[in-house]
Amino acid sequence: MNNSEAQGPLDKGNEKMETTTPSSLSSVAANAAAKKKPGSGALGVGLEARGIHAWFGDKMVLKDISLDFWSGTVTALIGPSGCGKSTFIRTLNRMHEFIPGAAMAGDVLLNGKDIYESGTDVTKIRLKVGMVFQKPNPFPSMTIADNVLAGLKLAQLKVQNKDDLLEECLVRAGLWSEVKDRLSAYGGSLSGGQQQRLCIARSLAVRPEILLMDEPCSALDPGSTLKIEETISELSSSMTIIIVTHNMQQAARVSDYTGFFLSDGGPGELVEVGPTSEIFSKPKDVRTENYVTGRFG
Amino acid sequence: MSTTAPGAKSANLSTPTPAKREITTKPRFSDKVFRGVATAGGLSSLLLLGLIFVFLAFQGFQVLRSEGLGFITGSNWDVVQDNFGNTDLEASSFGIAAMLIGTVICATIAVIIAVPISVLCALYLTFYAPGFIKRIMVALIDLMAAFPSILFGMWGYFVLMPHAEYWAKLIHKYFEWIPIFKMDVNIFERSPFVAGVVLSTMIIPIVTSISREIFSQTPLDRVQAAYALGATRWAMIKAVVIPYGRSGVVGGAMLGLGRAMGETVAVYTVLNLVYQINWQVLIGAGGNVASMILLKFGEAGPTEIKALMAAGLALFILTLIVNSIANVIVTKTGGKGR
Q1: Is residue B274 part of a domain?
Q2: Sign of the alpha-carbon torsion through A206, A207, A213, A219
Q3: What is the mean pLDDT of residues B269-292?
Q4: Among residues of chain A, what percentage have pLDDT more than 70?
Q5: For position B110, which CATH number holds?
Q6: Which residue, A107, A143, A238, B4, could crosslink A50 as a Cys pair with Cβ 3.0–4.6 Å?
Q7: Is residue B228 part of a domain?
């Protein structure tokens, strides 16, 4: 990856950070509702999901989800178990298709281009849309350093200074101070929370524009969760983050926008989406209100 | 103070460290019965192995004592009879060095040919084959693993051997500078190479089966982690599947090696047994302990049979040694990728 390309999303992100500082948040929020409607967002920037449907075999699990993700924002997807949140984000970087019998319909536009278009190089999509999984999954046969740089090797990318990249990614993931003296230890020797931050560092090394996080803290203790939330706030200045979480406090803490998914036994649907503060204080839909106030779910 | 509040420190600070308690459980009757049955099952296989060993050692003892170390270092097999038709143990000589070395050579050739093919086959079945092809092939390969070896021998003799001889000629033509591919005599028929090729067809199903089993157990979260980093399938296999499956593949290869060393009939049909150590694998002169036992058994007198028992004992020990080495390799290579 050449340097100018690598800097691209970063620069964009920095501009975005200015617009999302508290003083200007309200104006962003004001536009949000309009921008979240399919087709009405700024075209050609960021990630846009249009009418996503998903099936496992004959069972439809997602119905007509349309969501736009602005560059430099954190969007939390909440909802009870089995409502299709994870399935939805897995359609965003084409991980959905690894499950046998899985199918989808709709478009996912990355910078205006459909990632499901035939002839698309899937590996390039996944480089731009990174993913952190629920269970920490470092490669046990690799050292900490090799784990962080694994993406370069896997995707056959070249960088000029691997040591700098290694340090940068670990610093951004909030892990550098804890592992800088044992970079040649195996990834499996870290604690669960450290392993998860290692996985985040690993995702950052290929310089994604968008990071999908599928319940990244559900297997972790509160201390590690806090560290990862700090990491998310750090990262949100330079990239788009979409996080699935069962923890509503977490959604309230880390996200700019929140989407509420619900399934009434049939396919999961997007009930409501908006600025996080609105979803938690004055949701429009009564089902959202019931969920965020803890009346069910 | 007779009672201590929960969480309160013991009043007496000078209490000595207590002795470690012995922790025992009294198993229930049903557990005892099952344990007895399982132990009996486990020990019977060990007992069987031990009885075979004792029988071979007992039968072969006379010959082994008379031949000494020469039994495994010498290569002559001459049976001398006295005027009454009895075997003269002193004048006869029994040596199986050529057979032992030949056994190892054939089995090694077979493993060298079989392992790469098997691993590729297993990778194809696990990661590339469409569902129905996969189901058919898995069933066929498992069936092949259970095929009677005489069928491999016959097919090897009539079909594969002419081709193997042609390959041998090619190897000889281009790699003659490697000592083991030299030819002092121009006989390509029934060479250790040909036997190795036939043996490799026999062990491919086993090694494939085991490798496929291991590869399919690769943890899905690691596979997805690799894909999520923009890996191609081949890059994912290299980074995740191979490190994970390496020890299993080595184990499978060693099982194949074990089978190749013990194989009798298939080798018997395609290998020319010669009582002389031959390292030039393309020449039609090799050795194989199991095949030799088969060859000699029918017409052997009582003493020669004892010598054959001793040869069996040597094969038994050789197999044990190879398996032990395999175990060490599997443990050594196992830890890292898991």
Answers
A1: yes
A2: positive
A3: 86
A4: 85
A5: 1.10.3720.10
A6: A107
A7: yes
Higher-scoring residue by pLDDT: A30, B140: B140
Average pLDDT (A256-281) is 90
Give SS3 for B95.
coil
Of all residues in chain B, the one with the smallest CA distance to A188 is: B338
CA–CA gap between residue B231 and residue B236 (Å, rounded): 6
Cβ distance of B228 and A135 shorter than 8 Å: no
Count of structural domains within chain B: 1
Tokens 């074990």 belong to B258
| Contact at CB, A206 and B229, closer than 8 angstroms | yes
Contact A150 B236 (CB under 8 A): no
Q: What's the pLDDT score for residue B124?
A: 95
Alpha helices in A20-121 (DSSP H): 22-36, 85-92
Contacting B with CB below 8 Å, chain A residues are 93, 95, 98, 123-124, 126-127, 130-131, 133, 135, 137-142, 150-151, 153-156, 186, 199, 202-203, 206
Residues of B in Cβ contact (< 8 Å) with A141? 243-244, 336-337
- Over range B285-310, report the average pLDDT: 87
When CB atoms are compared, the residue of B228, B239, B337 closest to A126 is B228
Inter-chain CB proximity A95 and B230 less than 8 Å:
no
Judged by CB atoms closer than 8 Å, whether chains meet at A153 and B240 is answered as no
- Mean pLDDT over B285-304 rounds to 86
Distance between A43 CA and the closest CA of chain B, angstroms: 25
pLDDT tens readout for residues B128-143: 998 899 999 999 998 8
Share above pLDDT 90 across residues of chain A, in percent, rounded to a whole number: 35
Mean pLDDT score, A42-68: 84
Which pLDDT score is estimated for B90?
Answer: 75
Chain A residues with CB-CB distance to B226 below 8 A: 139, 150, 154
Å between B237 CA and nearest CA of chain A: 10
pLDDT in tens, B7-53: 555 555 677 888 888 888 888 889 999 999 999 999 999 999 999 99
Q: Do A95 and B228 lie within an 8 Å CB cutoff?
A: yes
* DSSP H/E element including A289: helix A286-292
Residue B6's pLDDT is: 59
In a domain, B79, yes or no: no
Is A166's pLDDT higher than 80?
yes
> Residue B227 CB: number of other CB atoms within 10 A?
23
Which own/partner pairs from A225-231 qualify as long-range (CB within 8 Å, at least 24 positions apart)?
A225/A193, A225/A250, A227/A174, A227/A193, A227/A197, A228/A174, A228/A193, A228/A196, A228/A197, A228/A200, A229/A253, A229/A254, A230/A174, A231/A172, A231/A173, A231/A174, A231/A197, A231/A200
3-state secondary structure of A77: strand
Best mutation target, B127, B222, B229, to test chain A (most A CBs within 10 A): B229
pLDDT at residue A43 in the model: 42
Chain B residues with CB under 8 Å of A131 CB are 224, 228
User: Which residue range is the domain that position B231 belongs to?
Assistant: 97-332
A141, A165, A206, A209: best mutation site toward chain B, by most B Cβ within 10 Å? A141
B12 part of a folded domain: no
Q: Is the pLDDT of residue A8 over 50?
A: no
Looking at residue B3, its pLDDT comes to 53
